[in-house]
Amino acid sequence: MICRDKDELQQKCAKIIEIDGNDVRVLDEDRLEKELIDDLIYTAVFSSDKAVQEAARWLIRRAGAALGIISASIQSIYEAMGRKELKGFTVPAINIRGITYEAAQAVFRAVIKGKVGPIIFEIARSEIDYTKQRPVEYTCAVTAAAIKTGYRGPIFLQGDHFQINAKKFAADAAKETQTVKNLIWEAIEAGFYNIDIDTSTLVDLSQATVKEQQKTNYSLAAELTTMIRDLEPEGITISVGGEIGEVGGKNSTVEELQAFMEGYLEELKKQGEALKGISKISVQTGTTHGGVPLADGTVAKVKIDFDVLEKLSALARTKYGLSGAVQHGASTLPDEAFDRFPAVGTAEIHLATGFQNIIYDSSAFPKDLKAKIYEHMKTEFKSEWKEKDTEEQFIYKTRKKGFGPFKWDMWELPPDILDKISAELEKQFSFLFDKLKMTNTQQVIEKYIKPVDVQLELPASLK
Question: Residue 179 above 60 pLDDT?
Answer without folding.
Answer: yes
